[in-house]
Amino acid sequence: AEALAWIGHFPPGSLYAQLCQLLAMALGDRDPVATAGLLAESLGVTMRHQLLAIVHTRARWVTGLAPSGG
Fold this sequence. Notes:
Organism: Prunella fulvescens (Brown accentor)
Mean pLDDT: 81
Number of domains: 1
Largest sheet: none
Number of helices: 3
Protein name: ESPL1 protein
Structural class: mainly alpha
């Protein structure tokens, strides 16, 4: 929980998602609402990261910066 608090303001995506998952596993059945929230947060970060990667790839393709041969 302390590690999550330290990086919570500017989280690197993969580290933040892993910390949320680990904290959710540590909480387990003791606090099901917090566990569900942490798992949802970890999935949200992963989905935002994937969406940004897709948008970046498409923007490069539209501007003609995509590698040739494909």
